[in-house]
Amino acid sequence: MIRAYGLAFAQLLDPRILRWAMLSVLITLAVYGLLIGGIVLVLSQVELATIPWLDMLARWGSGLAAVLLATLMFPGVVSAVIMLGQERIIDAVESRHYPGLTPARPLALGAAIGVALRLLGLTVLLNLLMLPVYMALLWLPPLNVLVFAVVNGALLGRDYFQTVALRRLSPAQVSALRLPRRKQVWAAGTVAALLLTIPGLNLIAPVIATAAFVHLVQEPG
Hints:
Strand content: under 5%
Structural class: mainly alpha
Helix content: over 70%
Number of domains: 1
Number of helices: 11
Radius of gyration: 19 Å
């Protein structure tokens, strides 16, 4: 796993990867902005209190609540969006490091959307369920970040692995390859989630994670 991420970072300046890293920055900023705007809009429509001054105080806090909720949903949402356009990142890594591979079959758009929607739905649901735990750990960094990364790493690891592997394997073969290595896949997903919590680096984290998972799939064990 360490080698996989090392190779992924080393290839960031590859022009084919760099283009998608720049695109990832734009997508990530847009997704985060839309998340915050959408959550603020939803909160603004909710009657928080019948006493005007209390309602005003509660609404002043809605901005902070929106940032918190957007941050919790951010890893799954941005990864789901990036997954819809990962083909060129994967092709760039395979052509440089595994030139002997036969041409892959493109992941069908329907399958890509299905994986992305699954990741999005599960991430939102899981983080909403974990919200009381996150709130309890709010003042205990870095433990709160680690718990957040481990929880989301299970989802990110599975779906990044599946997205890469499905280009060359059947769903049954993907499961057979992943299950014996599920701890490694989870750990790699946790690293991806941690990257998504680091300001600046989170803008290109999905590109780095995609490249790393290509190595994990191609070099089992």
